[in-house]
Design brief:
The complex is a heterodimer of chains A (180) and B (192). Chain A has 180 residues and is an all-alpha fold. Chain A has one domain. Chain A is globular. With 192 residues, chain B is mainly α. Chain B has a domain of 115 residues. Chain B has 7 helices and no strands. The relative contact order of chain B is 0.08. Classes of the chains: A mainly alpha (180), B mainly alpha (192). At the A-B interface, helix 1, helix 2, helix 3, helix 4 and helix 5 of A face helix 1, helix 3, helix 4, helix 5 and helix 6 of B.
Chain lengths: 180, 192
């Protein structure tokens, strides 16, 4: 059973590793589909909780995958899921780093780069939409997200931590009142 | 896979290589202190600004590469920096130092959260944080969208197609990305 789970984790995350253009955000929609709808590793509420923890905790947001692996398979599950997501793209990045100095300024490279920018953009926005849609927090979730988007677009260099904290408090207060 | 190829020297001048321990310590520290993300900016400040391990152009070129390639940007960037400074081992050490400590921390936080996970306000608090983090993501998506627009209005079509196919219709990622990157490359080639 365990071996089967590890194979499933690898089967889901290893291909996504090479498709995560624009960073880990771009594959969140598909991670959500696989881990909630297809394999039932986590419920929607757990998915959102784990996502929030991976955002609130230090380190790259890609550690979200580590938490899903941990949730379904303990420490080994965390390790297997992480390696599945990180190793394929890392090997590719390593190979590219080696040839970068030889081909970095050739025209085909900037062409490929230009072609991938709109894909990254669309995937990033789709990922945000999928997470917000999965949340059980009601309209206030969307309002917080849009307000934060406006704030972070306007002030690109502010420390995000105070904003994240205020957003958490705001959502807790709004939902607390709505409950009563 | 590994070929015995000498690592690229840290820079053109005959400078002593960056001590391995310094490399590991820096990436560990950044991995553990970067609440809320922004890791690439941390790396830039330390590696280029403070320590002069790499030049501006070199770092920014690597950053661009990291964004184009699949995988988390900061992981790809760390691989490049580690490779540039200390070869293949340096790349492996940089990524491990950046990832392993926060992995353990994130799991410990999750364990702590599960003990108190029934408390409704805590769940709401975390959902609020996630919503604001998604706001940050939306801001990033809009900024890259503006950058894409600079290359031609066809970019809007690609962005919208990706968003609808993946986000709304929830089509499988792999064929959508393969088909649309081909379409996008055709447009990019059409406009030099």
């Amino acid at each position: 059973m365990r071996g089967n789970l590890y194979l499933q984790l690898i089967g889901v995350f290893a291909p996504l590793s090479l498709l995560s253009f624009g960073g880990g955000q771009s594959i969140i929609a598909d991670i959500h589909k696989q881990s909630v709808d297809v394999f039932h590793w986590v419920t929607q509420a757990q998915f959102v909780d784990l996502f929030a923890i991976s955002r609130a905790a230090p380190g790259p947001g890609a550690l979200f995958t580590t938490l899903i692996g941990w949730h379904v398979g303990g420490w080994m599950g965390a390790l297997v899921a992480s390696l599945a997501l990180f190793v394929p793209s890392s090997l590719l990045a390593y190979a590219v780093a080696r040839v970068w100095n030889r081909h970095g300024d050739k025209p085909w490279f900037s062409q490929v780069q230009r072609a991938l920018i709109p894909l990254a953009s669309g995937l990033i926005l789709a990922g945000a939409y999928a997470v917000l849609n999965a949340s059980s927090g009601g309209v206030s979730i969307w309002l917080i997200a849009l307000a934060a988007a406006a704030l972070f677009s306007r002030f690109e260099k502010i420390n995000p931590l105070p904003t994240l904290f205020v957003a958490g408090v705001a959502q807790a207060l709004v939902q607390g009142w709505a409950w009563k | 896979m590994e070929q015995a190829e000498p690592a690229i020297p840290p820079n053109e001048s005959a400078q002593a290589p960056v001590p391995f321990a310094d490399l590991v310590l820096l990436f560990t520290r950044i991995g553990l202190t970067s609440f809320g993300g922004g890791l690439s900016a941390w790396l830039y400040r330390e590696v280029v600004g403070k320590r002069h391990w790499m030049k501006d152009d070199d770092f920014l070129g690597a950053l661009t590469m990291s964004q184009v390639l699949p995988g988390a940007n900061v992981i790809n960037l760390s691989i490049y920096i580690g490779h540039r400074l200390r070869g293949g081992l340096g790349a492996a050490a940089a990524v491990s130092a950046l990832l392993l400590p926060p992995m353990v921390v994130a799991i410990l936080i999750t364990i702590g959260f599960q003990r108190v996970g029934d408390i409704a306000w805590l769940h709401n608090f975390l959902e609020g944080i996630a919503a604001a983090a998604m706001g940050m993501t939306i801001a990033m998506g809009l900024r890259s969208g503006r950058r894409a627009l600079a290359n031609g209005r066809w970019s809007v079509g690609i962005i919208a197609a990706v968003f609808v196919a993946i986000g709304v219709l929830r089509w499988p990622l792999i064929p959508v990305v393969l088909v649309l990157s081909f379409v996008s490359l055709m447009f990019a080639r059409g406009r030099p």
